[in-house]
Specification:
By secondary structure, this protein is mainly α. Helices cover 42% and strands 0% of the residues. It contains three helices and no strands. α1 packs antiparallel against α3 (45-56). The longest helix has 12 residues, at 45-56. The chain is globular and about 25 Å long.
């Protein structure tokens, strides 16, 4: 059995395809402080937020 890699496979998937859509997103106050800049000017703001969360926190499904 090989070593378990600590590589972030979820980030690798998110870089290729956005699986998080804005109509299904909820977040806490800590993330709101990180994303205070106006991401809504981007067509892909939900994808940008998902990438930020993946690198600085945790994405969970409810």
């Amino acid at each position: 059995m090989g070593k378990i890699s600590s590589f972030n496979h979820q980030l690798q998937r998110l870089l290729i395809q956005n699986n998080v859509t804005s109509c299904t997103m909820t977040w806490n106050k800590a993330l709101m402080e990180i994303i205070q800049s106006d991401f809504t000017k981007s067509n892909l703001y939900d994808w940008l937020i998902a990438l930020i969360v993946n690198c600085s926190g945790q994405i969970i499904s409810l």
